[in-house]
Amino acid sequence: MVPRTRLKLRKNTDFIVIIGMHGKHKKNRRKHFILSYYFIPDFSMFVCLADLKKATMMQKLAVVALGGNALLRDTETGTIEEQEHNTTETLENLVHLINDGYNLVITHGNGPQVGNILMRNDAGETLYNISPMPLDICVADSQGGIGYMIERMMRNVLNKHGIDKNILSVISMVTIDPKDEAFQNPTKRIGKTYNEADANLLHDQKGWQFKPSLKHQGAWRRVVPSPTPIDILNKGIIGHMVREGNIVITAGGGGIPVYLDEEKNVRTVDAVIDKDMTSALLASSIQADEFFILTDVPFIYKDFGLPSQEKLEFLDYADTLRHLHAGTFGEGSMAPKIRACLNFIENGGQKSVITEATKLEDKSYGSKITMYYDNQKLAE
Fold it and tell me: Residue 59 — very low, low, confident or very high, per pLDDT cuts 50/70/90?
């Protein structure tokens, strides 16, 4: 019996494709589409299935990292109405990726939210003698709450556009090295501000470390390490689910930092992981094609904020690395994002894009980083 496949090549047009007996099959390692010859009665000729890209090629896979401003603006108080509005506005900009045939993984930050959870912890202990939860539970708490919010808003956005897709949120643990040098110099500020006396008391009682607040003179904030992510638990099932066409929300706040002890049991540490570094690691691990970081600026800039400021719209790996080593990018802002993009490209990714959250659909915005410039590819 001759096998048949129904392909929908364009709206309201169906073609019956009958497989030719002499077709040769060869799988492409990366794209996984089959190169075979097929007889299509409407064309009365044999054609290569690879030419029917929209009907047959495996969909591209993108990881989109939502920055903090995608959920909560600096000028806002953080009400759920504000966060839901901002989230919906951001997610609207992902619809064109779905319409262009991308499968999506969405990651997100949690800085303001986990800070609020820590302050609720503190208030509950002070006012009601409620036992405070450790940092890993607070990060997991933020993953669940933000993941739920993104999932619900995304369902509403897709419903508006008549798109039917499964969406699911996955709590994610990320392994780190407990001997990472970051533990020798904690730098990531979390939670509320304290006066010096209270900071010293908490240091004595709980062993917390503190550093001066960057925004409030005379105030102190707790600092924790920010180790390098090594592996993402459940990355296999995340990759499987997204390649099945599901939208997966995961790696919130950089993931919950854990390590495996000598008996392979999962242990926790008080630390936070950079969201963009984890997102890049996830993108590489599931062999994503493209990696997007949505932030509050539409481009990468050389010497941002200085008279010599220059927009950098297209960059190859070598030039980006040169700028990074030269200190072109702010260490507390753009530099970590640049490192994440370079890690993704270095590990086989096709393209990294850094752009403003509401400009994703407009391709005249956004800085693109690839391994080589287009003219270099043509010369090879």
Answer: confident
48 and 142 in a single domain? The answer is no
Q: Among residues 254, 337, 349, 368, which one is catalytic?
A: 337
Domain that residue 256 falls in: 60-185+225-379
Other CB atoms within 10 Å distance of the CB of residue 137: 14
Judge whether 275 counts as a catalytic residue.
yes
Q: Indicate if 337 belongs to the active site.
A: yes
Q: Are residues 42 and 75 in the same domain?
A: no
Q: Identify the band that residue 58 occupies on the pLDDT scale cut at 50, 70 and 90.
A: low
Whole-number Å distance between alpha carbons of 369 and 371: 7
Asked if residues 71 and 109 have their Cβ atoms less than 8 Å apart, the reply is yes
Q: Confirm whether 144 is a catalytic residue.
A: no
Whole-model pTM: value is: 0.82
Mean pLDDT of 14-40: 39
Same-domain status, 27 and 145? no
- The answer to whether the Cα torsion of 277, 281, 284, 289 is positive or negative is negative
Residues 271, 161: one domain?
A: yes
